[in-house]
Specification:
By secondary structure, the protein is an alpha+beta fold. It folds into 2 domains: about 50 residues, no CATH class; about 80 residues, no CATH class. It is about 50% helix and about 20% strand. It has 5 helices and 3 strands, in the order βαββαααα. A 3-stranded antiparallel β-sheet has the order 1-2-3, with helices on one face. Strand 2 and strand 3 form a beta hairpin. The radius of gyration is 21 Å and the shape is elongated. It starts with a strand and ends with a helix. The model has no long low-confidence stretch (mean pLDDT about 85).
Length: about 130
């Protein structure tokens, strides 16, 4: 990580809270093939390599978990919507739907099963949508 470089990186003070730059190098071995990926981050945190590593790992876990739910539960990766703003609009609709399904607590099943049940049962769908009004 680098610090004390604000004047070099941001002389016009556009990033008011900028304090450090970090580099994360990830090594991944899959089926005997090794790949190395280097990512750079800007941060409002003071220099602390351990904290930055923990933040990056925890954020990656959240992203991977969310992506898995959207892909398995909503078939996001198989979606062929590509024109204009439609991909972003449908991504927003999927996120809202997932949030509503997560807030519906009467059923202890996963979001995918709740979504399927809502497709078959109009009363259950109404219950999920009512969560948004409360």
């Amino acid at each position: 990580m680098l610090s004390d470089i604000k004047e070099l990186i941001d002389p016009d003070n556009r990033w008011e809270k900028f304090q450090s730059i970090g580099m994360i190098e990830s090594v991944r071995i899959v089926k005997g093939k090794t790949t190395i990926e280097t990512r750079y981050y800007i941060s409002s945190l003071p220099i602390n390599a351990q904290k930055m590593g923990e933040s990056v790992r925890s954020h990656g876990g959240i992203e991977n978990s969310l992506h898995w739910v959207l892909d398995v539960g909503f078939g996001e990766d198989d979606c062929r919507i590509r024109k204009d703003n439609a991909p972003q609009n449908f991504a927003i609709i999927r996120h809202i739907s997932l949030n509503l399904l997560d807030q519906e607590k009467t059923s202890k099943t996963k979001a995918r099963n709740k979504r399927l049940r809502a497709e078959w049962d109009d009363d259950y769908l109404t219950k999920i949508l009512a969560v948004a009004l409360n």
